[in-house]
Amino acid sequence: MSRQTGASMITEDQINDLVVQLHRLLPELGNNRRRSEKVSASRVLQETCSYIRNLNKEVDDLSERLSQLLESTDSAQAAFIRSLLMQ
Length: 87
Known about the structure:
Elements: E1 2-5, E2 8-11, H1 12-25, H2 27-30, H3 41-72, H4 75-85
Antiparallel strand pairs: 1-2
Helix pairs in contact: 1-3
Subcellular location: Nucleus
Domain BHLH: 1-55
Protein name: Transcription factor PRE4
């Protein structure tokens, strides 16, 4: 069975391959389970969404911490940090 997305076709095998690739990339699923253990595609997609949400939260938290750091440093240090970030 195949599914059509726009003008391109994707097969069930391609979907399964993509799910397997996601499974390998997820720390929670890829490292804590035996490789031979089967995990459903639904579980892999749920974990992928959760992982992306957690990464977004970490980025937001780090951005906030960086903003606070830049506000608390003198202008020369802040300029130096900004120049490092722009590279």
